[in-house]
Design brief:
The complex is a heterodimer. By secondary structure, chain A is α/β, with parallel strands linked by helices. Chain A is built from 9 helices and 11 strands. Chain A folds into 2 domains: 206 residues, Rossmann fold, CATH 3.40.50; 61 residues, Alpha-Beta Plaits (2-Layer Sandwich). In chain A, strand 10, helix 7 and strand 11 form a beta-alpha-beta unit. In chain A, helix 1 crosses helix 9 and helix 4 runs parallel beside helix 5. The longest helix of chain A is centred in the middle third of the chain and has 17 residues. Chain A is elongated, with a radius of gyration of 22 Å. Chain B is an alpha/beta fold. Chain B has 2 domains: 216 residues, Rossmann fold, CATH 3.40.50; 46 residues, Alpha-Beta Plaits. In chain B, strand 4 and strand 5 form a beta hairpin. The chains are: A alpha/beta, B alpha/beta. At the A-B interface, helix 3, helix 6 and helix 8 of A face helix 3, helix 5, helix 6 and helix 8 of B. The complex binds iron/sulfur cluster (SF4) (4 copies). Chain A: Keywords: Iron, Iron-sulfur, Metal-binding. Chain A: GO terms for molecular function: iron-sulfur cluster binding; metal ion binding. Chain A: This is (4Fe-4S)-binding protein.
């Protein structure tokens, strides 16, 4: 079984357009939506919910008001500005990282760490296609741990039901969520866009992917929107010996299918669909 | 007045709205534009910024003095992030897991732990023109969280000016950090089912923080009206609609402000500002 992750240095490059289409093209696979902060893949598939699991990723400090003498020691200890002075002192749950430092210093033993729910993860079925996905509780730290659960669930189903591939819609960016989406996968597809920041975003995600020593190739989305930038990206890839898997044109049909909540490849005649199909065949060759 | 420009996720046009709004408003009054999208800041690409200040953002990483360490294991026991391990040969700190919280140092009975500074990013400030000042944060590759960079960046807020902050995408921790203390949240969304889904999540956060908000629909079109229906059901005003337009997309790809393309757009963004100011006043 092979794992393929689709990522981008930044959101909005068309990552879900591509992975949504791949979910339609690939046969005998499981999908994993690792963009737990803003999961969108399920919108393209109308899946039926099969399982829900709660995810407890971290802890939060809690102050027992009646024990607190308002001495202020915890506030001076906390390096995350999470303690709000008053009678009694309080913890701002959005700022608290659950690090334990205040618990150790409170002379009244008024503070404890409590498990806090950081999200849910789900298994769904879109027809025959299993989809594992999640939703981070708003305001929580974007969590590599929750992404790891989504991937674990996808792998488990893939093994049980003997699927050939796990296709991962990765988290955007270069932070810990993006890293959790690509560790240990067999191939990474990086989606780039030809904008003034596109080259820079691309270099950062390539650096991250190389850091994890994964095989990867690049797709340039909306390549005809700015051919100067596209050439710049292509030249850079050439120099760095990075394979360009394909170019997807700027195609109004992408947006039309998004409005219908369908993967764009369903409309076989659209220019974007044709390009994505080529990319899919190229991918099959490579992995 | 402090306005945060928020979107459920990346690529909806948040930076487009923040930069264009800052530019138009600064034609009349002093504006401070801050880019809090510290993982991938790109507001600066739309301007010629003359940088005047740069500050490193640092965290403290624990180090162990072998002479004093008795290998008791207390440090590893209190660490909530698995960032420190005690072996028979010594103590190992995993820097990329460490949040720099200091709990291990507090717990160590022999005071064997001391701390070293590590730079996790920078905050840069500068001037675009007389009435438009700028600040941005940048998180280093491999660092887990940009929250601290955002907190540093927000220290530069000048309350005497109109402050416009380009928030990070999503609805997680860094967005909440950005929104804290803001007077208004300008929600940018696009007219697709994806846009609506992400908008709902973002609205939940802003509601909970009790900040007034309004919506700008980007890439608007008449064949998808669900955003309008949702907004009116929640009593959130729709302040502006930017059409799906190849010229605007091309302007963005070149790093140009689209309010400069047509006078009409400049005026519409002036009105957008007036609408927001009207709510806060
Ligand atoms: S250290 Fe303990 S007693 Fe002192 S203010 Fe904090 S919670 Fe209250
Ligand atoms: S657990 Fe850590 S982050 Fe939370 S309030 Fe205590 S010291 Fe601050
Ligand atoms: S500073 Fe905090 S996170 Fe780092 S090793 Fe010590 S206890 Fe763990
Ligand atoms: S708590 Fe201090 S003495 Fe104990 S193992 Fe850790 S560093 Fe060594």
């Amino acid at each position: 079984m092979k794992q393929i992750a689709v990522v981008s240095g930044k959101g909005g490059t068309g990552k879900t357009t591509l992975s949504g289409s791949l979910s339609f093209l690939f046969k005998n696979h499981v999908m994993a939506d690792c963009d737990v902060d803003a999961p969108n893949l399920h919108l393209l598939m109308e899946p039926k919910l099969k399982e829900t699991h709660e995810y407890y990723g971290g802890k939060k400090a809690e102050i027992e008001g009646h024990r607190c003498t308002s001495c202020g020691i915890c506030m001076n200890t906390c390096r995350f500005s999470a303690i709000i002075p008053g009678t009694p002192y309080r913890v701002d749950p959005y700022a608290c990282e659950g690090c334990n430092a205040c618990v150790l210093t409170c002379p009244e033993e008024a503070i404890t760490l409590k498990e806090s729910k950081s999200g849910d993860y789900f298994l769904s079925k879109a027809g025959e296609l299993p989809l594992s996905h999640a939703l981070l509780t708003p305001g929580e730290e974007t969590s590599g741990g929750l992404i790891a659960e989504v991937r674990k669930l996808a792998l488990k189903v893939a093994e049980q039901e003997e699927h050939d591939y796990v296709v991962i819609d990765g988290a955007p960016g270069i932070g810990c969520a993006a890293s959790s989406s690509i560790t240990g996968v067999n191939y990474v597809v990086i989606v780039a866009e030809p904008t003034i920041s596109g080259m820079h975003d691309l270099q950062r995600i390539v650096e991250t992917t190389r850091h994890f020593m994964r095989k990867f190739g690049i797709v340039i989305n909306k390549f005809d929107l700015n051919t100067v930038k596209t050439d710049e990206i292509a030249n850079w890839c050439n120099k760095e010996k990075i394979e360009i898997l394909g170019n997807i044109p700027f195609d109004p049909e992408v947006r039309n299918s998004a409005i219908r909540a369908e993967p764009v490849v369903k409309n076989k005649n659209s220019a974007a669909a044709k390009a994505i199909k080529e990319i899919y065949y190229r991918l099959l060759d490579l992995i | 007045m402090k306005i945060a420009v928020v979107s459920g996720k990346g690529g909806t046009g948040k930076t487009t709205v923040a930069t264009n709004l800052a530019w138009v408003t600064a034609a009349k009054k002093p504006v401070q534009l801050l880019d809090a999208d510290v993982e991938e800041p790109n507001s600066h690409l739309f301007f010629h910024v003359k940088y005047t200040g740069e500050t490193d953002v640092e965290i403290l990483l624990p180090r162990v003095n072998k002479e004093k360490c008795i290998l008791c294991g207390e440090c590893a026991k209190v660490c909530q992030f698995g960032a420190i391990s005690v072996f028979s040969t010594g103590v190992l700190v995993f820097d990329n897991l460490c949040h720099g919280c200091g709990a291990c140092k507090i717990a160590c009975p022999t005071k064997a732990i001391y701390e070293l500074k590590k730079q996790i990013g920078v905050v840069k400030t500068g001037i675009i023109h007389e009435k438009l000042t700028f600040g941005t944060g940048l998180l280093n590759i491999g660092e887990p969280s940009g929250v601290r960079i955002i907190r540093e960046l927000k220290k530069y807020i000048d309350e005497t000016k109109t402050v416009i902050i380009d928030a990070p995408p999503g609805t997680s921790c860094p967005v909440v950090e950005t929104l804290r203390g803001m007077d208004y949240a300008l929600m940018v969304t696009e007219a697709t089912p994806f846009g609506l889904h992400d908008l709902r999540l973002a609205v939940e956060v802003v509601k909970e923080m009790d900040i007034p908000m309004g919506i700008v629909i980007n890439r608007a079109s008449d064949d998808y009206t669900e955003i309008e229906e949702y907004a009116s059901s929640k009593n959130i005003p729709i302040l502006e609609k930017i059409p799906f337009d190849r010229d605007i997309a091309t302007a963005y790809s070149r790093g140009s402000l689209f309010v400069e393309l047509k006078k009409e757009w400049f005026e519409r963004f002036e009105k957008l500002y007036e609408k927001i100011a009207g709510v806060i006043a």
